[in-house]
Each structure stands twice: as C-alpha cells, then as structure tokens.
User: Fold this.
Amino acid sequence: MINQYLAQCYNDLKDHKRDLGNYVTKDGGGKKVASYMGELIESFKTVRQKQDGNLQKIGTGLDYISEILTLQQSYAAEEQETKQKTNFNLLVKDAVKMQYSSIDKRKIILTLDLENNVPGLVIEKNKLMQVMVNLIKNSSDAITQLDEIEESGTGPEENWIKINTSFSDSKIKFLISDSGIGIEQDKLDKIFEFGVSTKGSSGFGLSYCKMFVEANKGTIEIESPGKGKGATVRAMFEI
Assistant:
C-alpha cells in the first residue's frame, strides 16, 4: 500500500515538474502530496526505530539464552559427582537466573536477600542446583495456579517470591516464600512424600528435595496458612 502511495506521489510531482514550486505551495493537490511525503518520512523513521528496538531485544534475548545454556552446562549433573566447596549464595543467584525468564513473564516480583557472611558449603553442587531450581519453579507454578482459579479482578494486587539466605549456629539457612496457591493444612505433613502434589504432577520434585537435603545433614520443611495464602519453604544445612 505504501509503495502505491509513493508511486502516486512521484507521478503527481513528475506531472508538475515544470511548475513544481507553485504546485506544492499553492495548488491544493500539490500541498497534500507534500504533506503526505512528510508523513511518510516520519513513518519510515518510526518503523526504523521499532526495527532497531526489535533487533536490540533479539540481541539481548540471544545473550540471555547463551548465558543460561552456559550455566546449565556448568551445573550439568554427572553420574559420579563428588562433593566440593560451593558458594551457596552464588548458586542461589544462578538458580534464579535459570528461572528468571519464567518469573518475569508471569510478572512476579522477585526479592533476594542474601546474607554476606554465608560460608561455602561442601556438597554436590549440581544436585543442590536441581533442588534450588525445583523450589523456585514450585513457587512460580503455585502463583500461576492461584491466578488460574481466581476470578478476574479478585486476585492479589501483586505476585511475589522472596528468597533469603543466612548463617547462624553453624547452619546455612535458605528460605523461599511466595504468594501462591498455598497448601491445605491436612496436606502439609505429606507434601514431601513421593506422589503427593498440589498441581497434578508426579510429586517427585519435593520428594527429591527432601531426600537430598536430609542426605546432606540438612532439614527441610514447608508451612502455609492455607489454600490461597501462599507458602514458605525452609531448608538448613550444617557446616
């Protein structure tokens, strides 16, 4: 369509090339052609700016994907993984990066409060990463579940996930809270059992988290005020 208008403008100007000045300044049709040419130029500028913006977004997206793939490769589980001293806070940050695209897409407000004095933890870091990613994903999914069952306009004003780390009494403490669907009181004691799930999945994720944490001299528990009121997971590892 734009090409047709450009061709028409060109033909009009070509037909009046002998008196072009008067045509575009005094003739009604000529004034419209000149005005439209100006609008086209501005339109092209706008389109170019949008294209440049889209290219920048694509470039940023590719950089992000590359970073995530590199992270995933660095935490790829090995068949015979050995324990090693692991920067706990850095691992939490990397786990967040792996899930950030999903969190951002769902417009979830994420808050990180990582205490500076958290020491290194000797552990199988790749398996610990699986635990962290699983817990963050569970919180994100719980918020999505709540949004799906709430009627339009009656959901919480904002969706949020809060992650906290701290160190005291020779224990590294990890806490993740969310504003998601929560858990009924009669299911809290069984939520870590294999096959138990609040979202229709296999229920293996939380069961794996519990087995791994307890196998590394740790404890993990979950609490919730009830359905629709969010949940909090607390895990602790002894140094």
Summary: The two ends are 70 Å apart (CA to CA). The chain has a mean pLDDT of 81.
